[in-house]
Amino acid sequence: MKTNLIVGAGFSGATIARKIAEELNEKVIVIDSKDHIAGNAYDYRDKNDIMIHKYGSHIFHTNFEDVWTFLNRFTSFNTYMHHVIAVIDGIETTIPFNLRTLYDVFPHSLAQKLETKLLTQFKYNSKVPILEFTKQKDPDLQFLADYVYEKVFLHYTSKQWGVSPDSIDGAVTARVPVYISCDTRYFQDKYQGIPLNGYTETIKRILNHPNIEVQLNTKFTDCKETYDRLFYTGSIDEFFNYKHGKLPYRSVHFKLEELNMPYYQSNSVVNYPCNYDFTRIHEYKYYLRDTSDKTVIAKEYSEDFILGKNERYYPIPSPSNEALYQKYLNEAKELKNTYFLGRLGDYKYYDMDKAIKRALDLFKEIIQQ
Ligand code: UDP
Q1: What distance in angstroms lies between residue 332's CA and the mean position of ligand 1's atoms?
Q2: What are phi and psi of 118, to 5 degrees?
Q3: Considering only CA atoms, which of 16, 38, 40, 35 is closest in space to residue 231?
Q4: Residue 233 shares a structural domain with residue 353
Q5: Which domain holds residue 27?
Q6: Is residue 12 part of a domain?
Q7: N or C: where does the chain have the smaller number of CB atoms within 10 Å of the terminal CB?
Q8: Same domain, yes or no, for 102 and 156?
Q9: Do 303 and 162 contact (CB within 8 A), yes or no?
Q10: Is 270 left (phi over 0), alpha (psi -120 to 50) or beta?
């Protein structure tokens, strides 16, 4: 019987573990250096019975049928559709900036004029990345583009990434485009929701198979297991002992506050692009409609990732980082029976569904070999 070692018990590691254990009937050992499974999707119920997302809000959303079908074997989801509120000039409105936002932040007549111009210029329901949106010829639309750039993107992105929106790969800010629509949701995916028993429980169930053994508090470098295949979901530079240099990441930390009130804010996530040093405040009880006289909020502060000090959260897409990653990828290709996946293994800003999709696709590749 072949043995597979999987480094990392997050969504990527758990998905590939399950597929191998179940469909190839092979032994799988999953190790994780943390004292818990589920990676950065880890959640837990606190003493007030509120489900806390330890590493920040995780909202599941996907258009991938195979990912949705796979996950639904292990959990049911609620019908939560995510909205994000941003406070712009003290006014609460929805982002991505959309046609409704116009009427929240501008006088009615101005909003109407801008809406008409937008609908002449762009197709209804189109999504326009901010860096493209700022290239307007019409002076009214140029005014709007400058406004959105300044009020939504400039300061938030500077806090989040330490650089302005034009200095970061356009794909990052394009995740939150200007949306020529009355749809005020954050995501438009067909399937959205929060696992009813939480992410940790979902991943626990994925890993719950007679062929799978999980070892926590176990670093790859300390692991004595022998194996036929290796799946590495840690950071690829770490695997190669940083021989070409460190891949940069952004990190975040959360200041948790327990408050003696049923609700603190009007929504699960409220962004503060232009105010304060934190980027956003999460209020976790919204996700599963937890009932408690108390509430828990988390203020999110961004910072550089420093090895040994904090966690890796966001790969930083840029041509030089991509070139560095390619050096590691080239080395990885030389290795037999060794596969890299996940946000850190692939150095890609995956959402949860993309990480699972990547693991499902990798499994298909392996069985064809
Ligand atoms: N962004 C912004 N203002 C906002 C929300 C997002 O400038 O109010 C930009 C920012 O650069 C951020 C990126 O859009 O990093 C992607 O946002 P998203 O909410 O997708 O980030 P995540 O939830 O993955 O941290």
Answers
A1: 31
A2: -60, -40
A3: 16
A4: yes
A5: 3-80+195-247+315-367
A6: yes
A7: C
A8: yes
A9: no
A10: beta
**Same domain, residue pair 101 and 58:** no
Distance in Å, CA 280 to ligand 1 centroid: 10
Residue 294 lies in a domain: no
Q: How many other C-beta atoms can be found within 10 angstroms of the C-beta atom of residue 128? A: 22
Nearest ligand 1 atom, CA 160: 15
Q: Looking at residue 74, what is its pLDDT? A: 98
Co-location of 215 and 340 in the same domain:
yes
Query: For the chain, how many structural domains are there in total?
Result: 2
CATH of the domain at 67: 3.40.50.720
Of 131, 154, 180, the residue that ends a domain is 180
Does 139 fall in a domain? yes
Q: How far is the CA of 124 from the centre of ligand 1 (A)?
A: 23
> Going by CA atoms, what residue is nearest to atom 7 of ligand 1?
153
pTM: 0.97
Q: Return the pLDDT at 162.
A: 94
Distance from C-alpha of 184 to C-alpha of 82, rounded to nearest angstrom:
9
Whether residue 209 is found in the same domain as residue 174? no
C-alpha closest to that of 267 among 288, 281, 247: 281
Confidence at residue 140, expressed as pLDDT on a 0 to 100 scale: 98
Domain end point (choices 139, 154, 180): 180
The residue whose CA has the least distance to atom 2 of ligand 1 is: 153
Amino acid identity for residue 82 in this structure: H
- pLDDT the model gives residue 369: 84
Residues of the chain scoring pLDDT < 50? none
Looking at the structure, tell me whether residues 214 and 336 fall in a common domain.
Answer: yes
Amino acid letter, residue 188 = Q
How much is the pLDDT for 69? 98
| Ligand 1 proximal residues by C-beta, below 6 Å | 86, 95, 152-153, 156-157, 160-161, 172-173, 175-176, 271, 273
- For 166, other C-beta atoms within 10 Å of its C-beta total 14
- Asked whether residue 132 falls in the same domain as residue 53, the answer is no
**Ligand 1 test: best mutation among 156, 179, 251, 343, most atoms within 8 Å of CB?**
156
Whether residues 214 and 326 share a domain: the answer is yes
Query: What pLDDT score was predicted for residue 72?
Result: 98
pLDDT tens per residue across span 248-274: 999 999 999 999 999 999 999 999 999
